[in-house]
């Protein structure tokens, strides 16, 4: 985790660094710091807490004679999130920022102590500065010292280093954690960061460092080296389609709310990206059919993912089984990678990850590649590590997601898996003709597509769904705890609804398959507990209603989400939140796309009422690049 920025050039250095760090704050936000080349020295400023804390310390900083610097926003792994452990770290003339983990840091630390030095911080990162320092003491030149030191560290890391005697030079190395560079198209100069977002203000052409790459950056340009051999290499520059204006809140109080409301659009964009301009015509082919052919050739698919993406993959499993008739598992990447999974002859492993950087998901895909298994990914980030490691990358088209709690990327992942499942449809297990389903998804309803049209009505502030939701939220906000329950497609949604609430409102919440509630958690039910039941009129409806009877008998408060006009459900609930459509208007398999945003908003509203930091909840980070 952690976000790194580096810059050399004529812009106001502190402004570039702080603006860049704010774009990366989703990666970690427990402390931050910058180091800036001034006339003849490097000035380091650090602070615990959000970037705003550090920013106040930088205010009034004399900008004259500055020509580059590095910055860091941290998600603590080694050592508490305080000012001392914040990056940049300094040893002699060497100053650096680091993202990732140096696994052999203890050995380096022993050498540091042996030589009579005392590290200032508890971090593994500072050890790299010692390595470079020791190397230079032996007479090695700076860039070469960074290279040699880099070859000595183990673990996934990216590090950006500067030296007080070489103003205007920053050196980035990558092994695992992402690092991307671009040239300032307007004023000249070079910027480097953990992802493309900080670079979008200066360029739309970037190069992604490969593992084992070094980037030597000066205001004149970038030179790439292969760290192992020290030889010069070329790296291609790719055009980035995201624009900087998608990084603003656009008048919404929080990114999360903006991103929830963007879902009608991201569904259309993802649909268009997946099946191209022929999206109205059926039967359809996907823009990229290679992966589809690979799945058709496979006899089993294992989806691997973490967090919210795992919930999307659980839905993917249901759709793959129902429409494609293919044996599909949905696995937690952190478990899969340390099990002894039995792979079939024609197994295909698919990573689902919005960031494309999650360490556990990436590790599974790397392991599978080594074993010769075909790999695929559904992700939101082109150029991400996962996208580059797999045989068949598929991209949602959600634009940057800044809120740490994933919303539009979740529905984007769901949609990509839904489209694939429909494209794959191949016989026996199929219960619906693909044509009719895709028709429901893409058919035009007045000016918009069918599904986004329904979603806009769900999200309409003055509409029945939102009015009922607000009343429910006001009433249950102080509940002692929450259970979310559902069956079939609504089970992964229940898991996701509970996760959202935990993530941003810090309230205890659990998602349960409705049929499982009686096997334990029912003991906890009482009036101070709220049960949110997801019960649209689908094939599981009657069973869910029976489970709800059991809940009602125990006196818990009930918030029910179902089809408008469902009087049976409404009568059982303290609050009934209607989906504004009739049962026959949309196939049940598409209802998750309407239900997920309602559950996101349920969590959002409770968090706002509780006054938590919705976009940057405590202890979390959006891109989890450590195990
Ligand atoms: C973190 C984020 C979650 C996300 C999970 C997996 O925990 O806070 O929102 O679901 O990582 O991330 P990925 O990028 O692989 O989807």
- Using the CA coordinates, give the radius of gyration: 26 Å
Largest sheet: 8 strands, antiparallel
Helix fraction, binned, reads 25-40%
Q: Which band does the percent of strand residues land in?
A: 15-25%
Q: Whole-Å distance between the termini?
A: 10 Å
Sheet with most strands: strand arrangement:
3-2-4-1-10-9-11-15
How many alpha or pi helices? 20
Which cofactors or ions or other ligands sit in this model? 6-O-phosphono-alpha-D-glucopyranose
- Low-confidence parts, pLDDT < 50 over ≥5 residues? 427-434
Shape: globular
Describe this entry's structure for a reader.
With 627 residues, this protein is an alpha/beta fold. It is built from 20 helices and 27 strands. The strands form 5 sheets. An 8-stranded antiparallel β-sheet has the order 3-2-4-1-10-9-11-15, covered by helices on one side. Strands 5-6-7-8-12-13-14 form a 7-stranded antiparallel β-sheet. The protein has a 5-stranded parallel β-sheet with strand order 17-16-18-19-20, sandwiched between helices. Helix 18 links the parallel strand 25 and strand 26 (557-563). The radius of gyration is 26 Å and the shape is globular. The model is unreliable at 427-434 (pLDDT under 50). The structure holds 6-O-phosphono-alpha-D-glucopyranose. 6-O-phosphono-alpha-D-glucopyranose is lined by residues 306-309, 353-355, 358, 361, 404-406, 620, 622, 624.
């Amino acid at each position: 985790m952690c976000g790194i920025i580096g810059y050399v050039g004529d812009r106001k250095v502190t402004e570039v660094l702080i603006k860049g760090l704010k774009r990366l704050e989703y990666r970690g936000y427990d402390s931050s710091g910058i180091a800036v080349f001034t006339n003849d020295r490097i000035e380091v400023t650090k602070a615990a807490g959000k970037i705003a804390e550090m920013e106040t310390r930088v205010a009034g900083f004399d900008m004259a004679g500055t020509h580059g610097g590095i910055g860091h926003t941290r998600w603590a792994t080694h050592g508490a999130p305080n000012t001392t452990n914040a990056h940049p770290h300094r040893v002699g003339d060497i100053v650096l920022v680091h993202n990732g983990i140096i696994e052999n840091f203890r050995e380096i630390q022993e050498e540091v102590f042996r030589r009579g030095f005392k590290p200032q911080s508890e971090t593994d990162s500072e050890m790299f500065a010692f390595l470079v320092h020791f190397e230079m003491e032996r007479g090695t030149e700076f860039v070469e010292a960074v290279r040699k030191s880099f070859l000595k560290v183990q673990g996934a890391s990216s590090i950006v280093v500067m030296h007080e005697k070489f103003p205007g030079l920053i050196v980035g190395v990558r092994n695992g954690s992402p690092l991307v560079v671009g040239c300032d198209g307007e004023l000249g100069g070079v910027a480097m960061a953990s992802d493309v977002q900080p670079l979008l203000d200066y360029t739309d052409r970037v190069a992604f460092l490969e593992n084992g790459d070094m980037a030597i950056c000066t205001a004149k340009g970038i030179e790439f080296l292969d760290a192992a051999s020290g030889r010069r290499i070329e790296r291609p520059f790719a055009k980035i389609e995201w624009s900087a204006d998608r990084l603003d809140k656009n008048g919404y109080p929080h990114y999360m709310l903006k991103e929830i409301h963007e879902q009608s659009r991201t569904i259309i964009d993802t649909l268009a990206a997946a099946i191209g301009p022929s999206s109205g015509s059926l039967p359809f082919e996907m823009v990229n059919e290679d992966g589809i052919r690979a799945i058709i050739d496979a006899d089993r698919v294992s989806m691997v993912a973490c967090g919210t993406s795992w919930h999307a993959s659980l839905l993917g499993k249901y759709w793959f089984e129902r429409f494609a008739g293919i044996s599909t598992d949905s696995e937690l990447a952190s478990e899969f990678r340390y099990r002894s999974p039995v792979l079939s002859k024609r197994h295909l492993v698919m990573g689902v990850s919005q960031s494309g950087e999650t360490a556990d998901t990436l590790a599974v895909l790397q392991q599978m590649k080594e074993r010769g298994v075909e790999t695929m990914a559904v992700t939101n980030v082109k150029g991400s590590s996962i996208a580059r490691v797999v045989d068949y990358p598929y991209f949602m088209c959600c634009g940057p997601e800044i809120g740490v709690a994933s919303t539009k990327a979740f529905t984007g992942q769901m949609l990509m898996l839904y489209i694939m499942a429909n494209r794959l449809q191949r016989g026996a297990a199929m219960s619906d003709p693909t044509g009719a389903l895709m028709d429901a998804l893409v058919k035009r309803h007045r000016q918009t597509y069918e599904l986004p049209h329904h979603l806009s009505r769900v999200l309409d502030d003055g509409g029945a769904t939102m009015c009922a939701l607000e009343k429910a939220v006001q009433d249950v906000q102080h509940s002692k705890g929450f259970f979310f329950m559902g069956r079939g497609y609504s089970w992964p949604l229940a898991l996701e609804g509970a996760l959202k609430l935990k993530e941003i409102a810090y309230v205890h919440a659990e998602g349960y398959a409705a049929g499982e509630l009686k096997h334990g958690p029912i003991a906890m039910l009482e009036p101070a507990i709220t049960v949110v039941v997801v019960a649209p009129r689908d094939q599981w409806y009657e069973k869910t209603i029976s489970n709800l009877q059991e809940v009602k008998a125990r006196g818990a408060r009930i918030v029910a989400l179902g089809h408008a006009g469902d009087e049976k459900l409404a009568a059982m609930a303290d609050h009934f939140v209607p989906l504004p459509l009739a049962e026959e208007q949309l196939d049940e398999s598409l209802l998750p796309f309407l239900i997920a945003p309602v559950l996101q908003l349920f969590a959002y509203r409770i968090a706002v009422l509780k006054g938590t930091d919705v976009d940057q909840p405590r202890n979390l980070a959006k891109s989890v690049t450590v195990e």
